[in-house]
Amino acid sequence: MNFIKRAWLSVKARKGKSLLQIFVFSVICVLVLAGLSIQTAAQKSGELARQKLGADVTLQVDMEKLRENMQSQQQSSGERVRFRPEPIPVNSAEELTSYPQIKGYNFYSSTTALAATFEPIESTEDAEETTTESTNEAPGQGRMGGMAQGDLSIQGVTYTDSSTEFMDGTSALVDGEHITEEDTGKNVALIEQTLAEENDLTTGHTITVTSPQDDSITVELEVKGIYSTSSSGSDQGMNSTALIPYNKIYVPYTASAALKGHDFEGTIDSAVYYIEDPSEMESFVNQAQQESSIDFDTFKLDANDQLYQQMVGPIENVASFSNNIVYLVSIAGAIILALMIMMSIRERKYEMGVLLAIGELRYKLVGQFIVEVLLVAVISFGIATASGNAVADQVSDQLLNQEMESAEQMNTPDSFRGGGMAGRGMPGLQAAQSPQVDTIEDLDVSVTGDNLGLLAIIGLIIVITASLLPTFSVIRLQPKTILSRQD
């Protein structure tokens, strides 16, 4: 009789044990398939996190090297060397904006200024001191470290919607438009809502600010937009008028540089480049160091992918957990099935001895047991496939909820939109009334063909392992020995 037919008849004849094997193998297959689907969901969630969060690299002065240079100059000259800020040439910073790894960028240039045609917001303490101030200084003007300080904080940028305060939700545009790259070289400004209300300013009005170091430097700014801030400032900052959050004015970085003086024209303090995929951050830095004209003896590229690492950490933990599930369930399943088959073989020693005695080949006897387990495995595989999508849906829902909770805490600036580069390799230049995040409402994570194929391979390995080990312990004996041991 054909050994495949014998296997089928044996499975039918032992319905109770066959059902038990089907149940055990179904549980194994479902758990293995759940582990594989978790890996698929974790991989897709990781890709989603990279796309949404990205990473950023900051071009700034290398303070450690600057300090070393100052110390060496002081030792060689014997005189104390005063700290001098080292501005970054705009031309050098612009070289990196065309690199394919980035999805956006921002240039920063900060300074202070004096309000000439309007009144800054003052703290109660400042207002009381105003009556006793010396007339030798302009109202709100003071000195820190021998340098004159203004009563306004000027933040020069390329895009306001991708500046730190607007991205983390501390500030939000309430009227007008954001500053974009199109405003570079123009004298426009974003002012805070409280400052605007106290001075009856609206979009389209013009304000004048002057340099605290040189009163001959005057800049007229057209109010392009009004924003609100939820920042309360620091206790120390509230003692300085310029550090009061309401007195912070955003301008194009060119206007900020103009307030600093002629020596700072065409320069910035720092540049931030937003990387599309954190995995490309290293290649971006390497390309900049090899191809750009940036003086890396003075400046450095500081990589930051902290948000991505925080986001992807739990996802990687889930993926690691799923790997453990696959390994543990596969090993435990093979052991359990092997024990069940071994118990079955002990009861079928006489059958095996008779088959061997009448001339049945040993490999066909082994094949019979493998086919018996395979018949059970096929049924269990079908059960696992039918229930696999339900398991995958539960896993994907949990991962998606975790992803959306993190995504809700972020704002995606419009200057990042439009699929990356536009025009001559620069980011999109559209401004927004209120930046919004395109949240993902559905993540299609289900059992894939690759998952089923891998499950079939793992199941086949389990079947062969569980069948061969106990079978070899019996078929290695001679038929006479097997039959003589039969009680």
Secondary-structure blueprint of this entry?
Elements: H1 3-13, H2 15-53, E1 55-61, H3 63-77, E2 88-89, H4 90-95, E3 102-115, H5 124-130, E4 142-144, E5 147-149, E6 152-157, H6 164-167, E7 171-176, E8 188-192, H7 193-198, E9 206-210, E10 218-229, E11 248-252, H8 253-260, E12 267-268, E13 270-275, H9 281-291, E14 299-304, H10 306-347, H11 349-357, H12 362-407, E15 421-422, E16 426-427, H13 449-475, H14 479-484
Parallel strand pairs: 6-11, 8-10
Antiparallel strand pairs: 1-13, 1-14, 2-12, 3-6, 3-9, 3-13, 4-5, 7-10, 9-10, 15-16
Helix pairs in contact: 1-12, 2-10, 2-12, 2-13, 10-13, 12-13
Describe the 3D structure:
- The chain crosses the membrane at residues 325-345, 365-386, 452-475.
- It is found in: Cell membrane.
- InterPro entries: ABC3_permease_C, MacB_PCD, Macrolide_Exporter_MacB.
- Residues 325-479 form the ABC3 transporter permease C-terminal domain.
- The protein is elongated, with a radius of gyration of 36 Å.
- Helices cover 49% and strands 18% of the residues.
- The protein folds into two domains: 3-53 and 311-484, no CATH class; 57-130 and 137-304, no CATH class.
- With 487 residues, it is an alpha+beta fold.
